[in-house]
């Protein structure tokens, strides 16, 4: 039975939490990856940034529809989405733009379980971290395919 550490890419391309959003874009364009781990100076995982996050960071913010009742403003749905859009467009560093709630895997996790997480959560890649949160590698959908198609 193969584990995450058997198929992960050990030399994961990362960005630092303090890197600018512009630098993140440059890394995306030069690497060709769909998502990147964001790490602190010691290599601990801070979050993940996907291409969609970077695109969202450059969009216009759509204000939520408001209803006025007795001189009070009540947002009609979408307030969480508005806050998330606002967070992304005001981000100036990778750490601010990154999604902090990341689906990650342990190095000893079974490859089938990793594939299930990738598909169920509809993400392009999952970071492999140890118990202290140190980034050990990354597994992409391509890594899973290579594992499945090997004779």
UniProtKB/TrEMBL annotation:
Coiled-coil intervals, chain numbering: none
> Start and end of every CBS domain?
8-65, 98-151
On the tree of life, the source organism's domain of life is Bacteria
Per UniProt, which keywords does this protein have? CBS domain
Among InterPro entries, the record links this protein to:
CBS_dom, CBS_dom_sf, Diverse_CBS-Domain
Q: Which SUPFAM superfamilies match?
A: CBS-domain pair
Its recorded name reads CBS domain-containing protein
């Amino acid at each position: 039975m193969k584990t995450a550490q058997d198929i992960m890419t050990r030399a994961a391309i990362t960005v630092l939490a303090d890197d600018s959003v512009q630098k993140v874009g440059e890394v995306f364009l030069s690497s060709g990856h769909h998502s990147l781990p964001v790490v602190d100076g010691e290599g601990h995982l801070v979050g993940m940034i996907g291409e969609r996050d970077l695109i969202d960071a450059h969009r216009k913010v759509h204000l939520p529809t408001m209803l006025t009742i007795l001189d009070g403003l009540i947002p009609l749905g979408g307030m969480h989405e508005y806050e998330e859009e606002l967070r992304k467009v005001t981000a100036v560093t990778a750490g601010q733009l990154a999604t902090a709630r990341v689906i990650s895997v342990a190095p000893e996790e079974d490859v089938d379980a990793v594939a299930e997480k990738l598909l169920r959560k509809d993400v392009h890649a999952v970071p492999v971290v140890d118990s202290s949160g140190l980034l050990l590698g990354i597994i992409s959908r391509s890594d899973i395919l290579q594992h499945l198609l090997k004779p």
